[in-house]
């Protein structure tokens, strides 16, 4: 066999073995992906002309890639002005309403949290972020619903949301779609769609306002 | 056994090639530099992606290059690529199957680079900003990066992959050619 042909064959062998090993590694990885599920079924592809995840115009800006941060985005913690955040909130809220989703503002989310009915379980916060972000801090009492690993969370979410008057879903903030997609997923698991709301400001607004934070597991009291 | 010899005598030396370049290649240094740079980069990027497969899946989705109605294709790509990159990086570092690995990674890099360039152009047009002012998470394993810096980095990696592909040196390689009976 001539050298170019041998090199091509070797590349094919390397590629096939590497990709095959990658699929095996995914199966063994606790955080691996389900290969058959359409993870974005409830959402349309992100488009730059729609409010939502958007590119930054800050050359050289580096941020850690995180499950909680949408691609093409940086969080408001990176220095956006309050007015810009409020404007983005309003634009995203409008887009969500157009898609038939209900929205709560940051003030409304805070009032629901402080309402005595919250402690009685009438209002439930649902955290749509990944494990690391959830453990690092979440709204006290919020139940995790990482929609990319549904099997881990469905039972707990169903138990927490059964009979709730309002289910408030949030993710990192304006620049993420997980809360939107989770809100669209929840009715499939028996949650009343009329009770589901999206908290657009999400974790960024909550933590920036200095509101109570719970760390670790739900109800762990590690705050 | 690590190969330490000079280029194979059976291979004809290109008479037209500059002697300086041939001598430099025979020293094994260009191949070693290319293997180390590309290998370390892919091991690091693969490891970063492996640590958060969902973030990589979301990044892939942003490119909008997978056919609708076939979620398994994007899922399988997001699931398989990180470990594949890690493995290929390790092969280059070890000096095993160097040419085949370099060719495979060269193909990947060309696809990635075209995709990043198209996405950068799209984002720049949508935001009415210069392409070099665009910063986004390209799904490359390094978080949010400046698009032009990323394209320049990819260009350098493509050149280094090409060096590893064409180098005739076998120095400091564990088994440079996997499919050669006498590869050492």
Q: What would you note in describing this structure?
A:
Chain A has 223 residues and is an alpha/beta fold. Chain A is 38% helix and 9% strand. Chain A has 8 helices and 5 strands. Chain A has helices at residues 3-28, 82-98, 106-114, 116-119, 131-136, 154-161, 178-185, 202-208, and strands at 102-104, 123-127, 143-144, 166-170, 196-199. In chain A, helix 5 links the parallel strand 2 (123-127) and strand 3. The radius of gyration of chain A is 20 Å and the shape is elongated. Residues 43-82 of chain A have low confidence and may be disordered. Chain B has 184 residues and is mainly alpha-helical. Chain B has a two-stranded antiparallel ribbon with strand order 1-2. In chain B, strand 1 and strand 2 form a beta hairpin. In chain B, helix 3 packs across helix 4 (71-94), helix 4 (71-94) packs across helix 5 (98-127) and helix 5 (98-127) runs antiparallel to helix 6. Chain B is globular and about 50 Å long. Chain B starts with 18 loop residues before the first helix and ends in an 18-residue tail after the last helix. The interface between A and B is large, with 59 and 60 residues.
Keywords:
heterodimer; A: 223 residues; alpha/beta; 5-stranded parallel sheet; 8 helices; B: 184 residues; mainly alpha; two-stranded antiparallel sheet; 6 helices; globular
Shape of chain A: elongated
| Oligomeric form | heterodimer
Strand order of the largest sheet of chain A: 1-5-4-2-3
Q: Could you state the order of secondary-structure elements of chain B as H and E?
A: HHHHHEEH
Rg from alpha-carbon coordinates of chain B: 19 Å
Name the helicity range of chain B: 55-70%
* Poorly predicted runs of chain B: none
Discrete helix count of chain B = 6
Mean pLDDT across the residues of chain B is: 89
Which chains have the largest interface?
A-B, 59 and 60 residues
Total beta strands of chain B: 2
From N to C, what is the helix and strand string of chain A? HHEHHEHEHEHEH
The count of DSSP E runs of length 2 or more, i.e. the number of strands of chain A, is 5
């Amino acid at each position: 066999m001539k050298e170019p042909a041998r090199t091509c064959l070797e590349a094919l062998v390397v590629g096939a073995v590497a990709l095959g090993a990658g699929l095996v590694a995914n199966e063994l990885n606790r955080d691996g992906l389900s290969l058959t599920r359409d993870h974005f079924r409830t959402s349309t592809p992100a488009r730059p002309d729609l409010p939502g995840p958007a590119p930054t115009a800050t050359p050289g800006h580096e941020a850690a890639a995180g499950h909680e941060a949408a691609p093409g985005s940086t969080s408001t913690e990176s220095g956006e002005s309050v007015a810009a955040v409020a404007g983005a909130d309003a634009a995203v809220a409008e887009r969500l309403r157009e898609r038939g989703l209900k929205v709560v503002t940051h003030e409304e989310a805070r009032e629901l949290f402080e309402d005595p009915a919250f402690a009685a379980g009438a209002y439930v916060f649902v955290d749509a972020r990944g494990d690391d972000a959830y453990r690092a801090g979440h709204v006290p009492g919020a139940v995790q619903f990482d929609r990319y690993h549904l099997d881990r969370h469905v039972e707990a979410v169903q138990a927490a949301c059964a009979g709730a008057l309002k289910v408030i879903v949030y993710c990192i903030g304006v620049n993420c779609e997980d809360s939107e997609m989770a809100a669209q997923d929840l009715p499939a698991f028996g949650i009343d769609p009329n009770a589901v709301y999206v908290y657009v400001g999400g974790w960024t607004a909550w933590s920036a306002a200095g509101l109570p934070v719970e760390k670790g597991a739900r109800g762990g009291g590690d705050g | 056994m690590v190969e330490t010899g000079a280029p194979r005598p059976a291979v004809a030396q290109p008479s037209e090639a500059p002697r300086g370049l041939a001598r430099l290649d025979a020293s094994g240094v260009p191949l070693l530099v290319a293997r180390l740079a590309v290998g370390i980069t892919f091991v690091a990027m693969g490891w970063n992606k492996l640590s958060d497969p969902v973030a990589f899946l979301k990044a892939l989705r942003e490119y909008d290059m997978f056919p609708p109605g076939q979620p398994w294709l994007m899922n399988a790509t997001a699931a398989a690529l990180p470990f594949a990159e890690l493995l290929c990086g390790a092969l280059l570092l070890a000096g095993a199957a160097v040419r085949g690995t370099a060719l495979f990674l060269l193909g990947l890099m060309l696809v990635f680079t075209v995709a990043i360039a198209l996405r950068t152009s799209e984002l720049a047009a949508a935001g009415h900003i210069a392409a070099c002012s665009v910063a986004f998470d390209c799904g490359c394993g390094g978080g949010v990066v400046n698009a032009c810096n990323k394209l320049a980095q990819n260009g350098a990696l493509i050149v280094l992959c090409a060096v590893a592909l064409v180098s005739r040196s076998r120095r400091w390689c564990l088994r440079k050619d996997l499919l050669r009976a006498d590869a050492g």
